[in-house]
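Tokens in:
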């Protein structure tokens, strides 16, 4: 098997083409691995109580900026990093999306979306926490959610997204 990588301009859509004689469990797993951006999973160095911890991006529910410090809300823990929010936004996989001036959300950890009368959208996370999508970012988030539903990319999103 031969593997080639062709570089494209940053503004162009990345794509992967697999030419196979047949499909099997392994090729299906590889396809899912590429489509879900699993290969982009990163770990962040964070602090808590004077200790440094490594946190996998898949364990993060959301990142919140509070006075020069970014709070990483992860599986059962809140940790800190001084890395700027816009830097984290570029580092994290495509499942992370800005939902307000001070919050980046991991769409993979959402349990439910609920529109509110005031134009905001409430998001209930798998850990039970609630966060809110501001009006400024709502269109982009809604488009991403609907695109994922149409492509079948994020499982059960039709149930998560309540009009």
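Residues out:
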């Amino acid at each position: 098997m031969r593997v080639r990588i062709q570089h494209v301009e940053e503004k162009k859509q990345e794509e992967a083409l697999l030419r196979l004689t047949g499909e099997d469990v392994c090729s299906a797993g590889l396809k899912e691995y590429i489509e879900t951006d699993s290969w982009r999973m990163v770990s962040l160095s964070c602090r808590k109580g004077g200790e440094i911890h490594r946190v996998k991006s898949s364990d993060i529910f959301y990142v919140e900026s509070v006075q020069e410090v970014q709070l990483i809300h992860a599986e059962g823990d809140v940790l800190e990093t001084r890395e700027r929010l816009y830097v984290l936004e570029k580092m994290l996989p495509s499942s992370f999306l800005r939902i307000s001036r001070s919050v980046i959300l991991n769409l993979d950890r959402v349990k439910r979306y609920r529109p509110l009368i005031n134009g905001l959208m409430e998001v209930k996370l798998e850990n039970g926490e609630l966060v809110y999508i501001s009006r400024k970012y709502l269109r982009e988030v809604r488009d991403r959610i609907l695109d994922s539903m149409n492509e079948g990319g994020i499982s059960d999103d039709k149930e998560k997204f309540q009009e």
